[in-house]
Structures are given as structure tokens and as C-alpha cells.
Design goal:
Blueprint (H helix, E strand, L loop, with lengths): L1 H20 L2 E7 L4 H17 L3 E7 L5 H13 L4 E5 L5 E3 L1 H8 L2 E4 L4 E3 L3 H5 L8 H21 L3 H9 L3 E3 H7 L4 E2 L3 H8 L17 E3 L4 H9 L2 H20 L5 H19 L4 H19 L5 H15 L13 H27 L12 E4 L6 E6 L2 E7 L9 E8 L2 E6 L1
Helix pairs in contact: 2-3, 2-10, 3-4, 6-7, 11-12, 11-15, 13-14, 14-15
Length: 422
């Protein structure tokens, strides 16, 4: 009896693996194409190949993203032994810019009604008009056009339209894409897509069988999702600025460590994001230099000259921090202006109030003369004393007092008491 139970326990995982191997793997990309998205898709394709899956369905909704990440995803799809179906959905989704390359690279391209594809022009991505194209930009356009045309020709799709999507930034709705030979299937849901894929013959002769197969959805891991959020330059920039300003606040107003905790965590998350995104070291240098100028202005009376220079350096460094051409994941002017303006005003207010408090002379409400206390260390002649439950710096006159001796306050100089052994 026990042997049968043990055999059943051992067979359950094997049967589950076998069932997964005959199933369909579903991946979902909803957002920009970035290193986190790339790692997720590549991991999903690898797991599908190792488990012997029948098919991989990639649900796609993206405004575009980084060229390097898109290139890696396209190469992985082209090299995948498991057929990959890219479905632009649900209705309302889009496969713009880098998403166009990914859709055209699929073994089977599908879209839902109400979706769109196209607008893959690199010049439009950089924000330049066709009249402003220089030789370097033309090289980028020609390279992108040749790549997307080669992908379309490899998959037997409309290569002329694909090239126009790059050179002229044309777009197409789902219905137009089917008529133009950009996609093969129109489906408004995953079940409808799988139903239409049943018995579908690929150009290489393989026939897809999807009826009755379980769909195994692979989601992002915690690390991939964390890096996905940190692939947003706006979030990384805010974390970087909050971290720097929080540490400065902690330096000028040491207390219970809120600034240290908030600043440390924010900087660590920002550093993780900076590892994911392409950055410009000059931009980081300008940001640090701008912060330094603002801190120096707190100690040097320059009537705000250093602060003004610091703000200018911060803005220039912020706008040149990320080496990203795609507006899908670019740093916006609004984020820079709001972050620099808000944090600068807060920092100037805190620093000014802190420095004024430190420079203000002590004004005791009552005289300490005549009170008695206890020496907490040997007064030879200076040290700490405890008077009325408060620690004071003190200087002993006359016979030196040892730790534990009672002392009497005979005078006060600012924040220091003058005492003698009682």
C-alpha cells in the first residue's frame, strides 16, 4: 500500500511535466521593450523549448522601446525551434516602433480588431523631421529599413510595407494589415486565436495542433518585474534625485535617520535602474556638480549665484542623463522640471533653516548658576556633566572633579557650563 502511494507521488510531477510539454506557452508583454522585457521573453522561449511545448503565444501591446532589446527578441524568435505566434491584443493594443519588428519576426502574425501596427521610423523616434535628416541619421534609417525588410522577406510578408513603416512611419489597422499581407490571422481573443491555429500549416511544412491543449502562462519573475519598472527613466530619475537630496538633508539635519533610510533605499533602486538603462556619464557628472554647487551656496554667501548655477547644471545633466532615442521610454521635460523645482525649493528651505538654527546664539530661559549636578567623566578640566537630567559640556575651575563627583554651576558661556567641585 505504501509502495503504491509512493509511486503515485513520484509519478504526479512527471505527468505534470509531460502535460506541460504538450501544451501551449503564453507570454505577455504590456509596455515598453527594454532589457527586462527581453530577459522575460528569452526565458519564456527557453522554457518552452526545454519542455517541448507545441506553441508559444506572445501577447503584445507596446509603444516601442530600445533597439538593442528589440534586436535580441527578434533574433530569439527567428532562432526558436518552437513556433512563435505574436498576437497584438486585446482590442485597443498596438505594436508600434520596435513592436513592428517583433510582429513581423513571428512564425504566425495575428492581431485583434481595433489594434494597429507600424510607425517604426527612427528619425521620428529621435524627434527630428525629415528635412533635418543628416548623413548619420540616414544611415540609421537605411539600416533599420534593411533589417525590417529582411525579416519580412524571411517570413514571406509584405516587405515593401515593412520598409515604408521605417522610412515613412506608416501604420495599419488590423484589417488593413491582413489585406496587405502583414499578418495571417484576425482574432479578438486567445481562445479564438487557438481555434484558428488548429491545423494551421507553417511555411516549413509543420502543422499546428492546438485543440484541447492546456495553456501555461509564464509571468515575469519578481526580479524581471522590478527591473521592468526600473526601466522607466522617469522613475529612475526621481529615485536618483530623491536619494541625493535625502542624504543631503540627513547631513544638515541629523536626527533619527529618516533621510539616511529614504536616501539609501532610493539611491540603491536608482543604481539598479541605471544598470538597466543606457546612461551618459557626463549627465551624472553634471547632476552631482549641480548638487554640490547648491550645497556650497549654503556656506558661501553668493546671493544665490551658486544655486542658480547648480539648477542649470542639474537641468542640463538631467536631460542628457539617459542615452535613449525612443519617446516610449524617454525622460520627459515635465518630470525634470517638477523634480528639480520641488526638491530644490525643499532643500534650500531646509538648509537655510538648519544653518540659521546652528548659527543662532544660545538663549537659556533660566540661569543655570547655582544648580548642582554630577560629573559623568573626569573634568580635567573639560567634560560632560549631568544637570537636571540634561547632559552639558562643562569646564571645571579649581580642584579637578572626577567621574561621580558632585559639581556646582558657577557660570555659563554659551552652551558650556562653568562648574567647580562641590
Amino acid at each position: 500500500m505504501f509502495r503504491n502511494w509512493l509511486l503515485a507521488v513520484c509519478l504526479v510531477p512527471l505527468l505534470a511535466i509531460a502535460a506541460a510539454g504538450e501544451g501551449i506557452v503564453k507570454l505577455s508583454v504590456d509596455g515598453s521593450i527594454n532589457p527586462a522585457t527581453r530577459d522575460y521573453v528569452l526565458r519564456g522561449l527557453k522554457e518552452a523549448a526545454s519542455s517541448g511545448a507545441e506553441l508559444v503565444v506572445l501577447e503584445l501591446d507596446t509603444p516601442g522601446g530600445l533597439d538593442d532589446s528589440m534586436k535580441d527578441i527578434v533574433e530569439a524568435i527567428l532562432d526558436s525551434a518552437v513556433p512563435v505566434v505574436v498576437w497584438v491584443g486585446p482590442p485597443g493594443a498596438r505594436a508600434a516602433s520596435a513592436g513592428t519588428f517583433i510582429l513581423l519576426a513571428a512564425h504566425v502574425a495575428a492581431m485583434a480588431h481595433g489594434t494597429s501596427v507600424g510607425a517604426a521610423h527612427p528619425v521620428a523616434i529621435t524627434g527630428e523631421s525629415p528635412e533635418e535628416e543628416d548623413p548619420a541619421t540616414q544611415k540609421i534609417v537605411n539600416d533599420a529599413a534593411s533589417r525590417i525588410r529582411a525579416i519580412a522577406e524571411l517570413r514571406g510578408r509584405n516587405a515593401d510595407w515593412a520598409e515604408r513603416a521605417v522610412r515613412e512611419s506608416v501604420t495599419a489597422t488590423a484589417t488593413e494589415a491582413l489585406e496587405l499581407g502583414i499578418i495571417e490571422i484576425l482574432a479578438d481573443s486567445i481562445p479564438e486565436l487557438l481555434e484558428k491555429l488548429e491545423g494551421y500549416e507553417l511555411p516549413d511544412g509543420r502543422v499546428l495542433h492546438t485543440a484541447g491543449l492546456p495553456v501555461q502562462e509564464i509571468g515575469m519573475s519578481f526580479k524581471e518585474r522590478l527591473f521592468f519598472y526600473l526601466a522607466d527613466p522617469n522613475l529612475v530619475y526621481i529615485l536618483l534625485m530623491v536619494g541625493l537630496y535625502a542624504l543631503i538633508y540627513e547631513f544638515f539635519s541629523p536626527g533619527i535617520g529618516i533621510g539616511l533610510v529614504v536616501g539609501g533605499i532610493s539611491l540603491m533602486l536608482a543604481l539598479l535602474g541605471l544598470q538597466v538603462l543606457p546612461i551618459n556619464l557626463v549627465g551624472i557628472g553634471l547632476i552631482l556638480f549641480g548638487v554640490l554647487l547648491m550645497v556650497l551656496d549654503a556656506f558661501t554667501p553668493t546671493n544665490g549665484i551658486l544655486t542658480t548655477g547648480g539648477v542649470v547644471s542639474l537641468i542640463i545633466g538631467s536631460l542628457s542623463l539617459f542615452d535613449i532615442k525612443s519617446p516610449a521610454i524617454g525622460l520627459s521635460w515635465t518630470t525634470v522640471a517638477a523634480t528639480v523645482g520641488t526638491l530644490t525649493l525643499i532643500l534650500v528651505f531646509i538648509i537655510s533653516k538648519g544653518l540659521l538654527a546652528q548659527r543662532r546664539k544660545a538663549r537659556p530661559l533660566t540661569s543655570m548658576v547655582g544648580l548642582t549636578g554630577v560629573a559623568k567623566e573626569d573634568l580635567a578640566p573639560g567634560g560632560w556633566v549631568l544637570v537636571r537630567g540634561e547632559y552639558w559640556r562643562a569646564r571645571c575651575e579649581g580642584e579637578p572633579a572626577k567621574a561621580g563627583d558632585k559639581v556646582e554651576v558657577i557660570g555659563q558661556e554659551g552652551r558650556q557650563l562653568i562648574v567647580r567641585r562641590k
